[in-house]
Amino acid sequence: MQSGTSSERSGLAKRFGEVEREVADFFSSLRDDEFVHRVNDAWTPAEHLHHLNIGVSAVAKALGYPKLLPRVLFGRARGPSRTFEAVRDTYRGLLAGGGGATGAYVPPRDDPAAAQVPAHREALLARWGRVNARLVAAAESWTDAHLDRIRLPHPILGKLTVREMLFFTLYHNTHHVAAAKRRLDRFRSET
């Protein structure tokens, strides 16, 4: 989401559709060897996509709960939601300070045999479509007021308003595409 892009619920829904397609198009465009290319201990593109599936699924699940539950568990926001840029910049700062995925958000190391890569990619991309559809459907029941009042926990960023969590999720998806590109020779000049 670029500066000046609408942060209203309708603008967020449109942007989620765009990012879902950007991510799917990128991972679909990779050759099989690129999709599972490992550089040292860094995640492969397949593992990046698996991680995105985990994260988007968790947000979709949280948005599917009755609104009273996160409000009781995590409290009400005391101030306005931060902008997309503020959430993004805070996250980047925490990553630069050594923050990263932990626990259930770390994809299992996966090195499928060459013959299994197409089916593995197809399964991950199918899940990508499903978790994004669930997220957008769940977000439809949230008003702009709810997005700014109710909070959810983030493992690195702490408690975020739901709007901030959606901003984070948008950025996080594109962040992982960029991370996967940095380790693939044909994309190095773009990053």
UniProtKB/TrEMBL annotation:
It comes from the Bacteria. InterPro entries: DinB-like, DinB/YfiT-like. It holds the Pfam family DinB_2. Residues 18-178 form the DinB-like domain. Gene3D superfamilies: dinb family like domain. This is DinB-like domain-containing protein.
